[in-house]
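To whoever is on call:

I kicked off a structure prediction for a single chain this morning and the downstream step that reads the tokens threw a length-mismatch warning. I double-checked the sequence; it's 835 residues and nothing unusual in it as far as I can see. Pasting both halves so you can look.
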Amino acid sequence: MLGSTTRGWTIEADEAVEPIESGFLAGLSLDEKADLTGGADIWHTVAVKRRGIPSLLLSDGPAGVRGPRFSGDTSVCVPCGTALAATWDRELVRRIGGLLGDEARARGVHVLLAPTVNLHRHPLGGRNFECFSEDPHLTAELAVAYIEGVQSRGVGCAVKHFVANDQEHDRMEVSVEVDERTLREVYLAPFEAAVRRADVWAVMAAYNRLHGVHCSEHAGLLEGILRGDWGFEGVVVSDWYGTHSTAAAAAGLDLEMPGPPEFLGHLLAAAVRQGDLPESVLDRAAGRLLGLIDRAVLAPTSLSTEPEPEADADPAELTKEAAAEAIVLLSNDGVLPLAPSEDPTRPLRIAVIGPKADRPDIQGGGSAHVQPPYVVTPLEALTARAESTGGTVTIRHEPGVPLLPAEPLERRVLRVPGEDQAGLRVEHFAGHDLRGPALHTEVLPETQLFWLGPPVPGVSPDEYSVRAVADFVPESSGIWSLNLSSAGRSRVRVDGHMVLDNMKPVRGDTFFGRGSVPIDGTIELQAGTSYRLVIELYGQARSATWVSGVVLTARPPEEPDAQARAVAAAADADVALVLIGADRADSEGGDRTDLDLPADQEALVRAVAAVNERTVVVVNCGSPVTLDWADDVAAVAYAWYLGQEGGHALASVLFGDRDAAGRLPTTLPQRLEDTPAFPYYPGEYGRAPYTEGVLVGYRHYDAYSLEPRFCFGHGLSYTEFRYGDLSVEPGELPEDPVVVTVEVTNVGERSGREVVQLYVRDQVASVSRPERELKDFAKIGLAPGETTPVRFELGRPAFAFWDTHRHDWLVEPGEFEIAVGSSSRAIQASAALTL
């Protein structure tokens, strides 16, 4: 509560720190209180200098901490949300949260816009990779761990997007039509856990409507459920440009971002003066903002600037550990783990095939994108691992299909002119003519330049120009295809010749809908020859000044015999390792159109498998894809978006340096038509009906006896586990929990990791309930022959459903089944319980 804390803030390092005291709010003028409720720019809130109140700096996550610039600053890039969920490891996710908290503090970030706890309602959702899971309980548990880790460093989380922002199609206006019980049991559950268990500092309102009302001004949602039912005392912030009226403040919205505000801020002061808004509403919002500032802006004066004692000393090692724990081994006939040859004269020959071997997708796009300091590719890591064996493993690489997709040119083919440095020299100028001294010069790693707000401090966002220069040395000869899009006017020259002219851009969907339609061109290039590449960008009209940038992508000449060479390499190898993925990383702003793998990758897999029975396929995707070929290969692993250390992580699992320990956090369907929301997605006439109700994810497959390709919770280890009998000790709910215990033994010859999953089924209920629901889980590690008891405590929520008549949770007396197993379909032990 305001005034109850002894923490304070500073604006400058040498100024005194004064905490917020009781009555501080009363000393602010009406305009100053109103200023607190609107952003100052893209990422900062307004400072009230008269009273020494600093601004907050907010930053996107959730797989890194970007800070205020999309281009120019690097951040550790950890595995995406779905990959973190695939670890099923609370403590590991808590440590990742701590790492991100440290990253935020190092960048002066006070609130991290993360985690994303919307659900995988439909496999085509464009932001599914950001979200943890299709299951509300797994999502809730990992969200709590993530938030606790970040906030332990004195950095706030803004859990998002509240609520039911589960598709990108028409995301700004679509009205989600979901019944009260489904909303409470499924989509609100992770947010409730974030508020009640993790004490999250902020909540971000979703873009979409809920029953016709935008979530940012939905009083029943914000004041009724969030503050009334759950007792949330933190700040509700809009998604960027997700505020629609001044009335949102009365509904419970505290902060409009970005600034300058269009509906809150000074407009709230005007509304109070005109008698349209009670000043008490403004006082509540301003008070909550002051509380967040007190908590976050150097609030942790008791925290050292050094990492916490429990912090991981090496972020790279933690990132690699998380990536390795996320990899899910879906099938394996014994080809994995890879074993180096014992005879140096006959090394293990591995053919590394596929477009994702040296061009992996390490993260999704949109606001979740960060610039990592480096990326370890699978090919680099596998080559290094092979070299470490002293010649008992050899690697041969063939792409097999064309590069997917056309990508920005990056460090390995770009050099700063006149310097021994990879990348582009980027110069920023005031005005539109690239004249005068550059206000700022920097080196950036790729031809994807993107800024929100001013490109650099001191440059007007609508009166600027940028020149990027590099020496480009192509890796192959022939006709290259180039593609250019920009927010602003742009053009590209190669050795002085104009190859792309976008000085009269046509408005398109790029750059969050503020950029141009992409334009294409071609140029003939010779491998190994250096070409001077110049990219120019000029500021655009004031109406679109919040975003600026330019993206130049290039596709090398196609090699017609690429698949034939890959097949030949596979036929000559002991093991064929095929790395495949989508044609582009999933991204905010649009949903996928199908589950298919593009560019003949399925044909590549089948062709390789036809000549090598020891074919291993690694899928580098953020969401489900069609796996019709899975039964035709020796092993399949799902690798998600693993972050900057993904290559090392993958090599460690394939070679058995680490156990295959990931488990599916989402169902992989046989076909799109089998998925729960298929008949209702994406809705029509501006409405998205959630007619599948509580039967999301695996619950749908169970209810309709549908066989998925791979079920929720599935994943293989390199060892085997045996489950003992289940012990269930009834408790007197709600005071005493039900205690469930099962012994698990590693009966294999290797150490390994198992995820013990507990599901509850209500045998007879007055409402339709799922066949089983995940209610707890534990990740354990066992040495060969080791046995350990795994103990669970189930409280009242594990047996309750939302009673729409009483508008409350209800546990009905009767019979329940308690089941434990290694997946939702691999139940190893069960017992009956009478409540």
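Update from on-call: the warning came from a stale cache, not from the record. Cleared it. Sanity check on the structure: The chain is about 20% helix and 25% strand.
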